[in-house]
Design brief:
Number of strands: 16
Helix content: 40-55%
Largest sheet: 5 strands, antiparallel
């Protein structure tokens, strides 16, 4: 039984709406503006049962509040009805006096000042949390800006014409090896990633703090006034299931963030150990990053699944039949989602075999792009036009990885038949050595370029092929630079680019003379052809050039 939202005592519901009737009677007494010094609460026996009465003042007639029954005595462990009536009498008197006091202007003014102070404190704390969140966001941007790029091979010292390194002895003695520098860079990357994850955890907690701060303070302020305390009861009656679900959700989120922190630390230790064995390979970082994302995705799915089960149990749903039928449901789902199971299995094999990782450039099913995101189910690529392409892992049967370990520039160029082969190859070799000596491009080239020579002879001329072994994803930029440099070199040397030739056969000279001027086979504004003498089986005869 409640008065102004506060529980006074419990009664047995022998009669329907008994508690509501008692509450309405007490509220009617409170509204009579009774005198606290004259109010009387007593009981007397009626039909051998104690009946509690309330007399607001001496002039008014007493009002019957309730009758203490044997069921009420059983509810309190078999206490005598008279003793229970005595106890309830004191509780009713105290509740009425408290209700009278809480409706006084002095008390309401005091509570208003207190509520204003609490609200002001909440606003200040909320602003502090907002400022802290803003600082955390700025710090996150700073961490991302300061995060070092993936490691690259260290540049070897420049060499002179005799092949000696131009370094002072003291500098050469203190120079770190490429693997040491790569491991150091990767350690910095891991440290920055851990700081970033901790920053995201603090951001999530700041949001949760805002919700708890405003929700808790609003609930507390509602309970400070007798006229609004009933809203607390409404919230309590309506919010248990949502609050339980919210509590399960918050707990699941905290468990997920904790699992992410543990995964980060575990992978950091594994990465350091693997990097020492692999001499600081950049590939190790990509592979561990992809596996870490997949495991975090699985952890998130597990937290969501377990959290959902706990939420269902919290709102009163019996999980026994649900769990008992989970086997049949799982069988049905497995039959209906075979492609999903294939996606997960193939995704696991992709990670296990290190076919590709986040940051690689791959070609899958005729579609190419950089791997932007991957998990056990899908792989997402970003192509050259910025389109995000999502590919289910079960459809991936053939993968072309363009950035694993190293890449190669396969440079080819056709030169005319009249070109001096050795002279052209010498220019190409000199240009290849020049770009290899250039320090700005040397850091992208793994080995000296290899000029393979003449790789093809056909109607277009002689094809020269050059191989340049470069670091992953650098073959496009190195290839463009090599083409840019070779064009002015060939123009300066007078080397013509190979042009396709055609051979025309005529049965008599008149057909050649009747041939209208066309642009086919034109070189320098003149047309060349081959004629055949009549009657000699089509033997070709060179024709002199004619104006186009």
């Amino acid at each position: 039984m409640l008065l102004d939202g506060r529980k006074i005592f419990s009664v047995a519901l022998a009669v329907e709406d008994r508690a509501i009737t008692i509450q309405q009677q007490l509220m009617a007494i409170v509204k009579t503006d009774f005198d606290p010094n004259q109010i009387q609460v007593y009981y007397k026996f009626l039909n051998n049962q104690p009946v509690i009465y309330v007399s607001p003042n001496r002039e008014s007639s007493p009002k019957q509040i309730l009758t203490v029954t044997n069921l009420d005595s059983q509810l309190y462990g078999g206490i005598a009805p008279e003793s229970l009536a005595q106890q309830w009498k004191e509780q009713i008197r105290a509740a009425l006096l408290q209700a009278k006091t809480e409706r006084s202007s002095e008390f309401l003014m005091h509570q208003a000042y207190l509520a204003a102070g609490i609200l002001l404190g909440v606003i200040v704390c909320s602003l502090l949390l907002w400022d802290e969140r803003r600082k955390l966001q700025a710090h996150r941007q700073q961490i991302r800006a300061q995060m070092p790029s993936p490691p690259t091979e260290n540049l070897p010292p420049e060499e002179d014409s005799s092949g000696n390194q131009n370094l002072p002895p003291e500098t050469a003695a203190t120079l770190e090896t490429p693997s040491e520098q790569n491991i150091t860079t990767l350690q910095e990357l891991v440290a920055y990633k851990q700081r970033l994850n901790f920053n995201e955890l603090l951001l999530g907690l700041s949001q949760l703090g805002q919700v708890i701060l405003w929700g808790g303070s609003s609930y507390f302020i509602l309970g400070m006034f007798p006229y609004t305390r009933w809203l607390q009861l409404v919230l309590i009656s309506l919010l248990p299931p949502p609050l339980k679900i919210l509590g399960v959700g918050i707990t699941s989120y905290l468990i997920y963030r904790g699992a992410c922190a543990i995964i980060d630390r575990a992978f950091a230790a594994l990465e350091m150990a693997a990097l020492e064995r692999t001499a600081g390979s950049r590939r190790v970082l990509l592979r561990f990053e992809s596996a870490e994302r997949a495991i975090k995705s699985l952890s998130g799915g597990a937290c969501v699944t377990v959290g959902t089960l706990f939420a269902l149990a919290a709102v009163g749903i019996d999980l026994g039949p649900f769990i008992a039928g989970a086997g049949l449901i799982g069988l049905g789902i497995s039959l209906a989602s075979q492609s999903l199971i294939k996606d997960i299995i193939n995704g696991f094999l992709i990670l296990l075999e290190d076919q590709y990782a986040v940051g690689d450039v791959i070609v899958v099913n005729g579609v190419g792009g950089m791997v932007e995101y991957m998990n056990l189910r899908i792989t997402q690529l970003r192509d050259g036009e910025g389109r995000l392409i999502t590919i289910p892992n079960s459809t991936i049967s053939l993968v072309q990885n363009l950035s694993k370990d190293w890449a190669r520039v396969d440079f080819t160029i056709d030169v005319a038949y009249e070109t001096d082969v050795e002279y052209a190859l010498g220019i190409v070799r000199e240009l290849a050595a020049e770009i290899y000596r250039d320090r700005s491009w040397r850091e992208k080239i793994i080995e000296p370029p290899e000029v393979l020579g003449i790789d093809r002879l056909d109607h277009a001329g002689m094809m020269i092929r050059v191989w340049i072994k470069v670091k992953p994803l650098e073959h496009w930029s190195v290839g463009r630079e090599f083409r840019r440099r070779i064009k002015p070199q060939f123009e300066q040397a007078g080397i013509a680019i190979g042009t396709p030739h055609r051979s025309l056969s005529f049965h008599n000279s008149l057909e050649l003379l009747r041939l209208p001027p066309r642009g086919d086979g034109v070189t320098g504004g003149r047309r060349f052809g081959v004629a055949h003498r009549p009657g000699d089986g089509g033997t070709p005869v060179p024709c002199s050039p004619s104006p186009a």
